[in-house]
Design brief:
Keywords: Hydrolase, Metal-binding, Zinc. By secondary structure, the protein is of the alpha/beta class. It contains six helices and 14 strands. It has a single domain, classed as 4-Layer Sandwich (Metallo-beta-lactamase, Chain A).
Length: about 210
């Protein structure tokens, strides 16, 4: 399998595709530019199977409805953020000068840490709250990647000043759920460059000394 990073929208939020040999794909965090995103999928003859949300902040959900409607695929989000999709005061869009951003309710609520199997994709769901109450990361062992959302970045960590954020909880999530992954695991973050677990263990200034 292979993955593709697609930065979208004014905040350049990273959407990702995980693609199998049949050109089926899972979509992670389609944050904006729904028409352009759909065009990319069509031009590359990709067949989406589902939209997986690491969390429901506005910059990660802006294209959800456009993509879901076009491809008729279900959306997955953690149960703690089931109401965030339709509420700008929870998803944060009311605090920025972009207008209210909403999406319709998700078809599937993530209830616990578990294996998620869709076609021949097998992902491990890791509960990584702190940036938001329902933040999750998706670990694909076969590809040695983790889709970390806004929990862990190259040289940084997610902000915790939006509704439901908790700095101590985020640090614990990173140490207890992400840094225990194999060191060669590639971290596919919600913004910025990719990194690795090893690199963040060694040099992330927010994690050293914990």
């Amino acid at each position: 399998m292979k993955w593709k990073q697609l930065p979208l929208g004014p905040l350049q939020t990273n959407a990702y595709l995980l693609i199998n040999e049949r050109k089926e794909c899972l979509i992670f965090d389609p944050g904006s530019e729904g028409e352009a995103f759909n065009s990319y999928l069509e031009e590359n003859a990709l067949k989406p199977l589902a939209i997986l949300l690491t969390h429901a902040h506005f910059d990660h959900i802006g294209a959800v409805d456009a993509v879901r409607k076009h491809w008729n695929v279900p959306v997955y989000v953690h149960k703690k953020e089931k109401n965030w999709l339709g509420d700008p005061s929870l998803n944060g869009s009311q605090f920025f000068q972009l207008g209210p951003i909403t999406a319709n309710p998700a078809e599937h609520l993530i209830l616990s840490e578990e294996k998620l199997v869709i076609s021949n994709f097998e992902l491990e769901i890791l509960f990584t709250p702190g940036h938001s109450p329902g933040s999750v990361s998706f670990y694909h062992e076969a590809s040695k990647v983790v889709f970390s959302g806004d929990a862990l970045f190259a040289g940084s960590i997610g902000r915790t000043d939006l509704p439901g954020g908790n700095h101590e909880q985020l640090i614990q999530s990173i140490h207890n759920k992400l840094l225990i992954l194999p060191e060669e695991t590639t971290v596919l973050s919600g913004h910025g460059m990719t990194t690795t677990i090893e690199r963040e263990m060694d040099s992330n200034p927010f994690l050293n000394g914990f």
